[in-house]
Structure formats: structure tokens, C-alpha cells
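Co-fold these.
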Amino acid sequence: MVGPILEVTGLGKRFGGFVALQNINVSVAPGERLGLIGPNGSGKSTLVNCLSGALHHDSGGIVFNGRRIDGMPAYQRTRLGLARSFQLPKPFRSLNLLDNLRIPLLYTVNARHGAHLSGAEIDERCRALLADVGLIDKARRLPRDLTQVEMRKLELARAVASDPRLLFADETMAGLSPSEVEEILLVLFRLNEGGIAIVLIEHIMRAVMRFSTRLVVLVAGQKIADGTPQQAIKSPEVERAYLGE
Amino acid sequence: MMSTVKFWIASFVVSIAFLVLTRWLITNEYYFFAGYQVLQFIVLATAWNILGGYTGYTNFGTGAFFAVGAYSAVVLHKLTSLPVPVMMLVGGIMSGIIGFGMGYLTLRLKGVFFAIATLALAIVAQTLIVNWDYVGGSRGIYVIRPQHAPISGSYIQYLYSLMLALTWVSVAVARTIERSTLGLGFNAIRDDELAAEAGGVPTLRLKLIATTLSGALMGMSGAPLPYYVTYLDPASSFNLSYAVNSVAMPMIGGMTSWIGPIVGAVLLGTIQQLATVTISSALNLLIVGVLLILFVVIAPNGVVGLMQSRWRARIR
Amino acid sequence: MFSLDLAVNAIVAGLLLGGFYAAVTIGVTISFGMLDIVNIAHPAFIMLGSFVAYIVNSNFGLDPILIGVVMAPLFFLVGMGVYQVYYYAFERRGEESIQGLAFFFGLLFVGEVALILVFGVDYRFVEAPYIGPSLHFGFVDLPLRMLIPFLASLLMLAVLQVFLGRTFIGRAILAVSQDRLALQLMAANPSRVKQIAFGISIATASVAGALLIIIQPVEPSIGRDYIGRIFAICVLGGMTSFPGMLAGALLIGIVESITATFYGPSWAPAVAFGFLLLTLAWRPAGILGR
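Predicted complex below.
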């Protein structure tokens, strides 16, 4: 596919008098690994929420895969191939891991034109997804039996179950130990190799620097840098924002 | 695990057997009277649970849907003469429309606001009926029961049979939903609506299905009421006791499966019948309220939940 | 039949009524607006306040408002107790939504039925020197039985506003309503603060109940009419703001009064509830809610 998979122009969002996002312009190429960083409260999560459809943006346009998706409800965006994981894992608590994955499969993959997977095929895919993130042993358990890092993996597996072309990984590694961060990073690399563009929103700098081919820096609702990781980090605005904190 | 079709057939057989047995063995009219009440509660509890237990949206406006069904029947009764099953269908459609409308207005909000809105709706609906003289307004209206039932036996027995049929349909529908993709979607919404939406579940659409279906079933259960009581007035048909009961029964019985509302309805319904007969009818409402509070605090998964955890404990 | 005196009097009565509605709603502004606890049983506590005022007044002849204020500490303790149960059963488990609602719903119902069992369904009223006389300004009537509760209500609001803004506990409550985490970092226990706040919200019901029975005779099922009013006003007023809530209360009071005067009192209950539905339908909500 030629051209960016996601094109955001002039995006703005305010909460009452508070301007959370101002004139955000960013684009993501297919299969790209984009890092999104910024201090707390800079608007990263708000941006993800606006792009995924959890929030309505006030101004600007979003084009995904060549289609304008402004005003589209979140579930439709997911069906088009725009997936997100949640910063605080939100598993379906009363369902086992298999069923947790079954839902996005039934409601996205099976809801798209043409595709119609049988119950057995869906079952198989669920198992494959769980195996991919190393959770197949706990397939029939409930989310409350999972460790922190396992929850994050489930969260990623669920986002990926919808067969997306673009994934927003929202602070997936927050609070994890170095080896756990490594596990998640490997999963993300592998997903990216499969063709999914990934936007990694993170605070853990070494993970972001390793993972990203491009870096976007957000401060106080505005984009202040956009380039290769080395370029973006060296820009004077970024230095000021991080060192002056 | 029984397939859906088999369940419909099995439950049909059970219902027919129950109907035949009760009508053959029981002669005292009072038991059919009381039986109608309990069956009606099973339908209300099951209907409530589709929106409340499966989808996680608490509806306090059961009275409104129920009464709309009853008053639709009154209007039809005044206009023309139709068989009661047809009135039930019409009542169901009317209440279904109300459920859809209410859902459309309020389902975009957090569950809490939805619950409050349902209360508001119930009062608004009641106020409208109170001010509508065609159906008797606040004074109420008398409805004359037809002389003969379309089938053998007394008219009360006929109504009882109809309510049994509706119970069969409601329970079978509930179980069908439970095992279907739709039910899984409801479950996802209940557990985490944001995550469900992000997972491709069209949450608004599913919630509207739940409110419409739930409302329609409630309306259908209200339609025979005018013939059952022969005197209908807003105060009793919109009574908050319907709301409390339809919340308490699934909560006490268990909200995650189709069995819970039946258990809760039979339990509470029987207790209330006994209390009304032996003590007073105000006291029986007190009992329901107290039981609701107790169960909600101590055993939030209801009787079914208690059974399930005991069974699980025994396996280990 | 439209006439100027009727309209003006309806508006004035509505204002006075609205002021009283603020007293009724202030408790829920605290419990729901600030603490996120959906206490739909608040009307039951108000009715309890009314009947307590009735008993003491009919047996000892004390002024109802005085009774309401004196009983407030008792209601405060009851409120703390109710919160304790709520906390252990729901908040602690994180299962606040459906079961918490059912809990309060059950409480509302049990409250009403208990009152019916004890007092029956007859209307009860209190005796006080200001129930009956009215002030007259030209063609405008100001019944004292509405004016006094109006003033008392405003006073209670002012006192609470000062309390929340100036005292340590008050400010802790405001902090809890905004950021539970921040409070924990300050080494104050949020649930303790919430318990006190909830106690205060129930204490207001004691006073509100006394004011209610001054304005009109009461019987147990009147509480139901107030559920919609209370939440309509709370939502209209923006949930946490006292001035906003007062404005909402006055608005609803006026609209109800005009409706009752020109269209008949049987339409009045629908006003507040209709307002509530409309307000909820037009709330600027993304799927994230508030």
C-alpha cells in the first residue's frame, strides 16, 4: 500500500477550558515502528483515545487506510484495522482467556465482509494467539489468575486478535521489571514483523529508543519533535522539556 | 452441554407436562391465581436479567414496561375484541418500542445515569397514564372478563396457561442468548464496556437490543393483567414493587444464568404469597427489600452463585 | 386562564420551593457528586427526618427545624454506619456499580415500607406558629411555611459551603472528590474522609425532612417523587457545584410551580423527571462518561 496508513491533521481536543491537544499533525507509514513519548499529562493517552475513537476530537481530521474516520465509533475503527491496548489492562473478568480473545475475533474478524470463520477456526486462532504470547497454559483460567506481565500480554493478544494493520500499545511496559520489559518488547517486535504498524507510547526510554524507527515527542498537548530517535532526542525543545522538568 | 434447539424442545416438553399436571390435579382456583403471579414474576425477572445480569445495566423502571403492556391491552379491549395472545404481542411491541426509545436516549451514559433515567421514565410514563382519561386516569378502569375461556376450564386457568407459555418463551430466549455470540457480546459489555467497544463490539447496538427485548418481554407479561385483576389503576400497575421484585429476584437467584431468575422468582414469589395470606401485604414487601439487601451484601452471586462455589469447592 | 398575579405568585412559590429543593439535594450532591456513591435511598432518610420531626413535635411541641438540627448528629452517625456497610460490601471489592445500586434501592424500599408499617399511610403534619400566616406584598403572597424553610435551606447551604472551603475536614472531602490518590499520599485515609462526608450528607436529610413536613403534610410514599427531583437537580447543577445545584433547584421549583398552577398538580411529578431525562439525553458524553 502506498502512502501512510494513518494521517492525522490539525487534531485538537479540549476538556472545558483545558486544551489537551493542539494542532497535532502526525502520520504513520505501513509497518512502521513509531515511538510516542512525552512527560506525564502531555496528551499521549488523550491522543490515543481520540484516534481509537474512545473520545471525540474537537478539530482536525483523521484518515486511516485512505478513509476519513472522524466521528466513527470505536468499534468500527477496530473493524477497519485500528487497534489499541489499554494502559491499565481491561480484561473481561468473568471470561477465561480463550473467551477474552474470542470476542474480538467474533466481532471484528468475523464481522468483516467476506470472512466467516467457523467456531472451530475461531477456537484455533484463539489458541494460536495465546501460544504466541506464551499464555496457552492458562487458556481456561480467568484473568485474575494472571501475573502483571501476563495481563499485559493478554491485553496485547486481544488487541491483535482483531487482525489490525495498526496497533497503539499504550504504556504496555509501565511498572514491569527489566526482564519483563524485554519479554513485551520481543512480542512487539514479532507482531511488527508480521506486518502490523505499531505506535509505542512509553516512558521507558531505552525500550523506546531500541524499538522505534521514528520518534514523536509530545509536550503540553503539542508536538515538538518528529524524526529519527537520535534527531528527536537531540532537539533543543526536547532537552528543555525533559531537563527543565 | 445441550444444544439450543434441544433446549427449546426439552423446556417445551417440561412446560406442557407441568401444565397438564397442574390443571389435572389442582382444583382450587386460588393456586392458579397464585401460580399466575409466580409465573409472571419469572418472566419479569428473566426479562430484567437480560439487560441487568447479562449486560450489566440496572433498570429500575420495570413498572413502566409492565404497565404499558397492561394499558395497551386496555386500549385494545376498549376498541375491539381481540384474543389475549394478540394483546400480549401488541403489549410486547409497545413496550419494546419504549425500551428502544429509552435506550436511545440514555444508553450513551454511564450505567449509573441509565439506572436513574429508568426511574425517571417510569414516573413520566405513570404521570402520562394518570392524566389520560380514556384509560381511566388515576381513578382506574374496570375490565370485564369474558364469560368463557377459549379453552376448557375457567378464565383464570386460561390466563395461567398463557403465562406459562410466555414463561417458556422467555426462559428459552434467555438461554439462547446466553450461549450465542450476542450473549458473549453482552458479557463483554458488562465486564468492560470500553474494552468491548475497542474489541469491535457495537456496544450501543447491542445495548439497544437488550433494552428492547427486555422491555418487550415485560410488556407481554403485563398484557393479560387487566383480565386477571379486572380493575386496573396506575398506582398498582406502575407500583415500585414490580421494580424491586424484578431486581431482587435475579440478584437473589443469581444473575449470570437463566436459572437464577427462576430460582429467585419462585423463592421470593412463594414467600410473598405466603406472607400476604398469613400476615399482611405491606410486610411481604419489607421481606423482599430486606432479602435484597442481605443477599447483595453477603452473597452477591445469588443462590446459583453459592451453589456453584460449593460445587467447585467439592471438586477440588 | 392566564393572569399576571397567578403567574407571579407561581414564580415566587417556585423560587421558595426551589430553595427548599436545594436542601433536599445537597446531601446527594455530596454523596453522588463528590463521593461517587449513588445513594438513591436519600429520599428515605429525608422521610425519616420528617417523621422524626413529626413524633417529637406532636409529643413535645418543639419547633420542627430545631428538631431537625438537633437530630442531625444522630443522622450523621447513621450515615457513617451505612457507609461502613457500603464500603465493606462494595467499595472494597471494587464492585460498586450494580450491587451498590441494588443495595441503596433495597434501602429506599425498606425505608418506605418500614415507615408505612409504623405510621400507616395517613398524612402527618407538624404544628408551628409560622405554618398558616403569610406575608403580603401587593398581590404577591409569601406563605411563611415556605419562606422559613427557604431561608433555613439557604443558611444550611452557606454553612456547608464554608465548612467545605475553610475547615480541614471540609477541604479533605473536596480533595477526595477530586483525587483519591493525592489524598493517600497526604497520609489521610480516603475511606475515613468519605465516611465523614457521607455522614454529613445523611445529616442534611434530617434538616431537609423537617423542612419538608413544614411545607406540606407527609406520608411515606412521598419519597419516591423526590428521587427524580434530587438527581435532576444534581445533574443539572453540574454534580459538584453548590451554586450550580442551587440554580438547578430554583429552576425546577419554578417550572414545577408554573406547571402545577396552569396545568394541574397531577402533571408536576413529570416535570422534574422529564427535565432529568432531557438533561441526561443531551449530556456531552463521549463513551468515557462524565
